[in-house]
Specification:
This protein is of the alpha/beta class and about 290 residues long. The protein contains three helices and 15 strands. Helix content is about 15%, strand content about 25%. It has a 15-stranded mixed sheet that branches.
Length: about 290
């Protein structure tokens, strides 16, 4: 009798352990992780992280190691930048971080990010995700965006057609071949140098103050509608002397007491183009730096 009871207990224990092991294996084999709604989700392999943000509605940062930070734990930098949050791990590894709440501004640059999902945070007005490893960035749901910086990533395309409020767009040092800014009428600052653009239409961007197109593959450009420009940078493209002269003809006349600069060097036709065209319109030469 005693042996039968012992055997029964052993069988029950084995069954329980088998069930627990099965659930554990199922959990390990399921790569899909459920995150709270309205989250900003990012994937990183960095050991040290620094995030600067502002917003409301009980913002929390979940660091992917069981720890989290609340909004009142951040360090106030200034009223323009928001709160700074720092976090470190014992070792570098792939981790997923998510931020809950309504985030209005976010700076997550230089964090070795390989993925960034902001599609569930339409309140975002400013994003700086420069100096990462992003190959894609979807901002179509972020219609409140005014400032977007995603320099020095690995982007080949970016769709800003839904971002009608955009005033500043910096996409320097990516691999972008085409860029449509026809629906960004409020754009004032456009920096897309060090890409692979072969053509760009800025006729709809009549409020542009700064336009940096250096080191692309452009062969022509019409800026006849961009009468608010203060700096035009086209250095290191593929403009011939003829196409440069044609561009110079579209420049507006700079009124006395105001200024506008141009950087045209490094093109095939730079030496042979007629610089008197832009000089007579009171434009000045000034190199454009990164």
């Amino acid at each position: 009798m005693r042996n039968e009871r012992s055997t029964s207990k052993t069988r029950s224990l084995v069954w329980v352990l088998t069930v627990l092991l099965s659930f554990s294996l199922m959990a390990c084999g399921n790569d899909k992780v459920e995150y709270p709604e309205a989250s900003i989700i990012m994937t990183t392999t960095a050991k040290e992280l620094r995030i600067v943000l502002s917003g409301y509605d009980d913002i929390q940062i979940h660091w992917g190691d069981g720890k989290k930070s609340n909004l009142n734990e951040g360090i106030l930098l200034n009223f323009d930048e928001g709160l700074e949050f720092s976090h470190s791990y014992s070792s570098a590894a792939k981790r997923t971080i998510y931020i809950t709440g309504k985030v209005e501004t976010l700076r997550c640059n230089n964090m070795l990010l390989t993925a960034l999902d902001i599609s569930q945070n339409p309140e975002l007005t400013a994003l700086n995700c420069s100096d990462n490893l992003l190959t894609e960035l979807d901002v179509r749901q972020n219609t409140a965006l005014k400032f977007l910086r995603c320099n020095k990533n690995q982007l080949t395309t970016i769709d800003v057609s839904k971002n009608a409020s955009l005033e500043e767009l910096h996409i320097v040092g990516n691999q972008i071949r085409t860029l449509d800014v026809s629906r960004n009428a409020l754009l004032k600052d456009l920096k897309c140098h060090k890409n692979q653009l072969t053509n760009i239409d800025v006729s709809a961007n009549t409020q542009l103050n700064f336009l940096n197109l250096n080191r692309n593959q452009l062969t022509n450009l019409d800026i006849s509608t961009n009468t608010s420009l203060k700096a035009l940078c086209i250095q290191g493209n593929q403009f011939t002397a003829t196409s440069l002269n044609k561009l110079y003809e579209t420049l507006f006349y700079v009124p006395a007491g105001e200024f506008a600069t141009i950087d045209y060097l490094g093109n095939p036709g730079s030496d042979d183009a007629d610089n008197s065209i832009w000089q007579e319109k009171n434009w000045l030469y000034s190199p454009c730096f990164p």
